[in-house]
Amino acid sequence: QVQLVESGGGLVQAGGSLRLSCAPSGRTSSVYAMGWFRQAPGKEREFVAACSWKGTNTRVADSVKGRFTISRDSARNVMYLQMNSLKPEDTAVYYCTAGPGYRDAEIKEAYDYWGQGTQVTVSS
Fold it and tell me: Which residues pair with residue 33 across a beta bridge?
């Protein structure tokens, strides 16, 4: 199976920036899409961003468009989520995910593998 390890979360003031990393390993030959979802306490897990395996195609949620950027460093085999102009409402556990297709990349049910999550807290 595929293993996903996230890192880079932490505490930051509103307006600040963080960069999350996700390192995939294992049997990744069937993975064609990777992405980021987030979940705040008492809320459903929601889509943040996604990319194709090589990172050529990217997509971000309207709520973070213009502030967050997803990218893929194939040489290091790492996926990044650059988060700028952070707001308190961005506070959540952020999860890296991987799955077999990019067409339904905004739907959490389309993914097969999930990381353990990394906490992002934005103070006012």
Answer: 52, 99
